[in-house]
Specification:
mainly alpha
Length: 297
């Protein structure tokens, strides 16, 4: 029992310390690969870190003090979400914490009363309505496949990797990651690319330290999301860690490829496509797994 708590504490501390470095490097690799896909040299690999340091040195202009508080709570909840996940806790609680963190980002943007930020906040809420059903189905799928919501118990299962039982949910979760990672064709709320009609969307009124907080929060969040992808591959077999690394790498590369080859869609198409994906491959996967689990076939 004590060993379990010690291991959880080690993973939590490792996440808190290492996630921003891994997330920043991942962002640098993302920019580099995107640039090469577009025939450009691209920025240095460490450019995301340079950007954050520069932001921390800039003057921070806040519309109101509540805005800063909301952003700090957003950062805390994102870190808390990753700690719950890598600490091996309940997957439903993990996803609930992730949703809560996003609500504070929306509140921070809405409190500025900027038309661009408000538009971004509204689109962020629509995006949440789009991807939340698949997120919940993913948690349900892991429960049906392993008999538990506990992350530590899921990774200790001594059977086939969960992706064998949950191929539809894996594809569906990877699909909604285009929203969570702010990539085309569903980059609607934060305007990751500068050519969109609402400037920087939900982050328009964030400057200096506030924008740095958002960037660091996304680094933490991205590492957590890649951890969920890894959960489809990891089990009691030590070799599964290698499979997970390969799976995460391929998935992230495909998302970068999609980002650089797809045009941005309108919110109605995003909503329709995500719910169709959830209803078709997500629900069917859960239904088939439930039937197999009960031994009907």
């Amino acid at each position: 029992m004590m060993n379990r708590y010690i291991i959880s504490a080690i993973f939590i501390i490792a996440y808190i310390v290492l996630a921003p470095f891994i997330g920043g490097l991942t962002s640098g690799v993302d920019r580099k690969i995107s640039a090469r896909m577009q025939g450009r040299q691209g920025p240095p690999l460490l450019q995301p870190f340079y950007d954050v340091v520069k932001l921390l040195k800039k003057e921070t202009v806040a519309i109101n003090h509540v805005q800063i508080i909301y952003l700090l709570i957003f950062l805390v909840f994102v870190i808390f979400t990753g700690c719950l996940f890598f600490g091996g806790f309940d997957l439903l609680l993990v996803f609930f914490s992730l949703t809560t963190s996003n609500l504070f980002l929306i509140l921070a943007a809405s409190s500025s009363h900027s038309p661009y930020a408000s538009m971004g906040a509204n689109r962020e809420m629509v995006q949440m309505l789009s991807y939340e059903p698949m997120v919940l189905l993913t948690a349900v799928g892991f429960y049906l496949a392993t008999g538990t919501f506990k992350v530590r118990e899921i990774v200790m299962q001594d059977n086939l990797p969960n992706i064998i039982k949950l191929p539809g949910l894996f594809v569906g979760f990877a699909f909604i990651l285009t929203i969570k990672l702010r990539k085309h064709p569903f980059d609607l709320a934060t305007s990751h690319h500068a050519h969109q009609e609402m400037v920087k969307g939900i982050t328009t009124e964030f400057s200096g330290e506030m924008f740095a907080i958002v960037e660091i929060s996304h680094w933490y969040e991205n590492v957590f999301l890649m951890g969920v992808i890894a959960l489809f591959f990891i089990n009691a077999n030590p070799l599964s860690i290698l499979y997970a690394l390969i799976g995460v790498t391929i998935t992230y590369f495909v998302l970068i490829l999609v980002d650089n080859t797809c045009a941005r869609l309108k919110w109605k198409l995003m909503f329709k496509n995500t719910w169709i994906t959830t209803a078709v491959i997500g629900v069917i996967n859960v239904f088939v797994l439930e039937v197999i689990t009960k031994g009907v076939i």
